[in-house]
Amino acid sequence: MGAAAAWLGLAILVVAWAGGMVARATTTESVVTNPRTGLAIAGFDPVAYFIDQAASPGREEFELRHRGVTWRFRNSGNRAAFMDSPGDYEPRFGGYDPVAIGRGAPTPGNPEVWLVWERRLYLFFDRQSREEFTADARRIVMQADARWPDVRDRVLSR
What we know:
Blueprint: H1 2-27, H2 48-51, E1 59-66, E2 69-73, H3 76-84, H4 86-89, H5 98-102, E3 110-117, E4 120-124, H6 127-135, H7 137-156
Antiparallel strand pairs: 1-2, 3-4
């Protein structure tokens, strides 16, 4: 019975470990990137939205490579904060407009049309999209969450 229990425990650990690997792989988001420069969210500092409550361009001397793209930051402190916890600062849905994602369309957000809602950064195609989002954010996020896996797969297959 002791050996059977040990094997069962080992099997549970392996399944839990493999499940964690699958969860990480399926949650990786494609990040809106400028195709000419390779900069994530057009070079805007993702931390500044939270710290300064502003869309602020990052600086070349404060760059960081993360998820295969280059992120820029206004200063070394913002870069360090992002390095410590990128998930806290990355735009939701990789910077794609959540209203458009909810409709099944991978529409890049504009880093100058943004909103922090429930401690997450959202970028929008235009002000009208942001207004639609603010009118019923919870419903729109639920729709976008439901559609994002398919939309993300289309983005990644390009």
